[in-house]
Amino acid sequence: MDRVEILLMIVVAFTAARVLGRIAERFGLPGVIGELMAGAILGPQLLGFLHPNELLDALSELGVILLLFMAGLETHIRQLMAVRRSAIGVAMYGALFPFIAGVGASWALDFGLAESLFVATALMATSVGITVRVLRDLGIQGRKSVRIILASAVLDDILGLLTLVVVTAVALGRANYFEIVLLTVEAVTYILFVSLMGPWTVNKFSRLLRKLPKNLLFELGLVWMLALSLLAEYIGLAAIVGAFLAGLVMSDLKEHVELEEQYQPLAWFFVPFFFVLMGTFIDFAAFAQPMVSIATVTFTVLAIATKYYGALLGAHHEGRQISREVGVGMIPRGEVGIVVAGVALATGAIGDDVYTAVVGMVVLTTFISPFLMKLVYLKDGQLRTEPAVGSTHAHPAAAHRHGPGGSAAGQAGAQGGPATGHRHGPGEPAAGQAGEPAAGRAGTAVWPAETRRGRAVWPPEHRGSQAARPAGQAGEGRDEPATGRSRTAVWPPERSDD
Fold first, then answer.
1. Cα–Cα distance measured from residue 93 to residue 83, given in angstroms and rounded to the nearest whole number
2. Mean pLDDT score of the chain, rounded to an integer?
3. Of 480, 476, 475, 477, which is closest to residue 493 (Cα–Cα)?
4. Which of 19, 215, 467, 486 has a Cα-to-Cα distance from 271 of 20 to 30 A?
C-alpha cells in the first residue's frame, strides 16, 4: 500500500464508523453495532474496500489497548481485591462450562479430537474490550459488576493462554509440560508484580509526580502503557492485560492530577478501528452452507448460555442483579476467539468450515451482547448523559425520580446528585444501580465525586450555598445528609489528608 491508499483507508474506515455509529445511536442501538456494520459493509464480503491487514490490525490493537488502559484508570487495585472471590468464581466457571460444552457439541457434530479442543478453547475466551466499550457508551463504569468483570478478565486471559498452549501441543502431538509450567509462572509473576509494586511505587513518589507538568505525565503514561502491553504480549498474555494493569497503577494519581481527559481524544480516534476490523470478518455467504449455519448457531447459543450461567454461579453470593450483569458482560468473544481459530487453522487442526463457524460465533456474540447488556444494566430503558470514550455523542439523561435539590442522574453540570433509589452505607455507592454517574467527567455529577485534597465531595461542590440538599429529599430512600455548610456539601464524610 502506498501513502495515498493508507490515508484513504484510514479516512474511509473512520468516517464510516463514526457515521454508522451515530445512526445506530439515533435508533437507540449501541454505537458499536454501527461500527461493526461499517466493517462488514466495507469488508471483503460486500464492497471489498477493506481487508484485514497489518495497518488495520495495528490501529485496532492501539484502540483496544487505549480502551483497557482507560478502564484501568477508572478502577483501583483495592476495588479489584474487594471482589476477588467473585472474580475467581466467574473466571473458573466461565472457562469450565464453555470448554465442556464446546467439546460435547463438537463431538455431536462429528468433529475430530483436535477440532473439538480448539472449538472449546475459542468458546472460553472473553473479549473484555467489547464489554468495556459498550458500558462506557451506556455511561456505566463504576458498578461493582464492572469491577468483577475486569478482574475476571485478567484471570480468564491466563486460563485461555494456558488452555491454548495445551490444546496446540495435543493437536500437534508434542506436549511440553515444562513450557506450560514456565508460562504459568511468568504470567502469574507478571500480574502480581505489576499489581503490587506498581501502586506502591506511585504512592511512594506521588509528591514528586504531582509536581510534574501534565503533558509530561501524559507522555510518561503512554510509555508506561505501551511498555506493559509489550511485556504482556512477550510473555504470551494479551496486550490488553498489560494495558489494563498500566491504567490500574496510574489510577492512584487521579487524586492529584486529572488524567483521563488527556487520553480521551486518542481513544476516541483509535477505538473505532478495533470494531471496524471485527466487522470485516463477517462472511454472509458462509451461512448459506447448512453445516456451517448449524455449527455457528450451536456454538453461539452455547457461548452465550455457558458464560452467562457460569457467571451466575461464580457471583451468586453478590445477588441476582449483579450476577446477571456480570453474566452478560462476559459473553462477547471478539478478537480472542478469532486468534484461537486462526492458530487452529494455521496448524491444520481445523478446516475452513469449522474456522468460518467459529468466526461466525464470535461475530454473533459481539453483535448480540450489546443488546443484552443494555437490557440487563438499564432495566428502565433510560440512559444517562455520559460522553463515553469512542462514543459518537452523549446519551439522554436517565429519568430517575429525585427529590427537591436533586437532579436527574448524569445531567451535565448538574449540582444535585443522582437519585438512585437505593440505600447504601456512608462512603460507599450502591453497586449495580442504574443512574450512577461515572467518575472523571468534567461538568458531570461523578461518583466518587472529584477528589479535593484527599476527600470525596458529594454532591458536586456548591459554592456560596447553604444546605446543598435537604435531608430525606434525595431520591428514593437515599440516606444523604444535609450538611448545612456554607460552601460545600460533603458525601461521603470527609477523609483526612493523612
1. 16
2. 74
3. 480
4. 215
Which of 129-138, 195-204, 248-257 is the least confident region?
248-257
DSSP H/E element including 451: strand 451-452
Q: Give the pLDDT confidence score for residue 257 in this predicted structure.
A: 60
* Residue 120, C-beta contacts closer than 8 angstroms, at least 6 positions apart: 98, 99, 100, 101, 102, 103, 106, 167
Query: Under a CB-based contact definition with an 8 Å cutoff, are residues 102 and 127 in contact?
Result: no
Residue 295 burial by Cβ neighbours in a 10 Å radius (0-12, 13-18, 19+): buried
Instruction: Specify which residues 412 forms β-bridges with.
Output: 444
Contact 146, 140 (CB under 8 A): yes
Backbone CA torsion sign across 459, 465, 467, 473: negative
- What is the distance, to the nearest Å, from the Cα of residue 94 to the centroid of all Cα atoms in its chain? 16
Report if pTM > 0.70. Answer: no
CB neighbours (10 Å) of residue 108? 10
Cβ contact 389:271 at 8 Å: yes
Domain with CATH 1.20.1530.20 in the chain: 3-377
Amino acid at 23: I
- CA angle 79–81–83, rounded 5-degree value: 80
Beta strands in 86-217 (DSSP E): none
In the prediction, which pLDDT does 409 show?
39
Burial label for 425, CB within 10 Å (0-12, 13-18, 19+), is exposed
Predicted confidence (pLDDT) per residue in 339-370, tens digit = 788 778 877 788 878 888 888 888 888 888 88
- Element containing residue 52 per DSSP (H, E): none
User: Distance between CA atoms of 344 and 252, rounded to whole angstroms?
Assistant: 41
What would the grid cell of residue 14 be? 473512520
Cell of 352: 475452513
Domain 3-377, classified CATH 1.20.58.1120, yes or no: no
pLDDT digits (tens, 9 = 90+) for 281-309: 877 777 778 888 899 999 999 999 999 99
When comparing pLDDT for 497 and 164, which is higher? 164
Distance CA 45, CA 281 (A): 8
Scanning 173-289, the segments in alpha helix (DSSP H) are 177-204, 206-211, 214-235, 239-250, 260-280
Q: For residue 266, is pLDDT > 50?
A: yes
| pLDDT at residue 255, as a whole number | 58
